[in-house]
Structure formats: C-alpha cells, structure tokens
Amino acid sequence: MIKSELIQKIADENPHLYQRDVERIVNTFFEEIIGAMSEGHRVELRGFGAFSVKKRNARTGRNPRTGAAVHVEEKHVPFFKTGKLLRDRLNEK
Amino acid sequence: MSEGTLTRMDLSEAVFREVGLSRNESADLVESVIRHMSDALVNGESVKVSSFGTFSVRSKNARVGRNPKTGEEVPIEPRRVLTFRPSHLMKERVDAGNKS
User: Fold this and answer.
1) Which superkingdom is the protein from (chain B) (predicted)?
2) What is the ipTM of this complex?
3) How far apart are CA A41 and CA A30, in angstroms?
4) Has residue A78 got a pLDDT over 70?
5) pTM to 2 decimal places
6) Based on C-alpha coordinates, what's the Rg of chain B?
7) Measured between beta carbons, which residues in chain A are less than 8 angstroms from residue B58?
8) Which of A20, A48, B11, B64 has the highest local Cβ count within 10 Å?
C-alpha cells in the first residue's frame, strides 16, 4: 500500500470530506511524527508501535574498497519498535 | 535532546489545528490512518509512505534460541516481524534536528 492508496481508503470511508482535506490529514499525521523526532521526542502509538531517536556515537569507519580509515561523526537515527498488539496480530493463527 | 513523548492525542490535535474538523473527528481520522496501515501489514502488504519511510513484513524461520539467563535451549517458532526503513528525508531531518 502506498500513501495515495491510504488516502483513498480514508476518503472512501469519509464521503463528507474533501479529498484534499484527507490528503492534508494524512500528511499532517506523518509530518507531525517527523517533526517530533527531529526535536528529539518519541512518538508512541499504542497497539501500533513507537518511533524514537537513537544516538550513534562517532566512530572510525573504513572505506570497504580501499581499507582507508575514515572518521564517522556522531549521528541520530530514527528507530521504530513494533507495538505488542500489532506484533501479535502479525502472528495470529 | 529534549524529553517528551507524543501520543495519538498530539497527532489528533495537529490534525484538528490543520483542518477545520472537530476534535472528535480528528481523533477518529488519526485512528483510521493507524488502522488502515495495521490492516495492510497484517495482510502481508508493505506500506510505503513517500518522504516518510517503508514498513514491511518479513518472515523469520524457526530457530533454536537460548535463555540468556539459564543457558537453556528454547525453540523459537517461525514468525512474522515488522521492519521500518526510514526515508532519506526522515533520516536527514532527524539527524539535523538533534545535532548538539
């Protein structure tokens, strides 16, 4: 499923809403999550999962081709952990 | 890094501010987004959101695990797990925003 299909499903269930409003709602949902994480916040959606930010320390990496040592700066990466309910649903018989 | 956790309520509030709907309806719509994504994943579909990231379901084979405390061998059943791959845009924004 891609974002436009997600938007379409929600638009179909809400015929009283303009398509462009449904687009704005869905975009706001994702934008808000990225915005929160870029301020260092966690976003917890019970039953679905939680988005958080993990710090990766600076390290000395290697160019795999030449073997030359390169300095890799400290960085912050997005991380997602699946929620219990969804994890269980993925595995129900 | 500042503290704080956002929940469905904060996302609903953002939708409420963005579109002229009631708080109740905004909350219902946030719930629909989550439900449609969950349902697609449970059906084994991946969910691709451009400029956000991709959720995909992977199947893992059965393997023998070990209880790290006791060293006892325990069978791990085959299972499906969800992975999330953030988009480049998300990675860039999250890294830029958290620079000290």
Assistant:
1) Bacteria
2) 0.90
3) 14
4) yes
5) 0.90
6) 19
7) none
8) B11
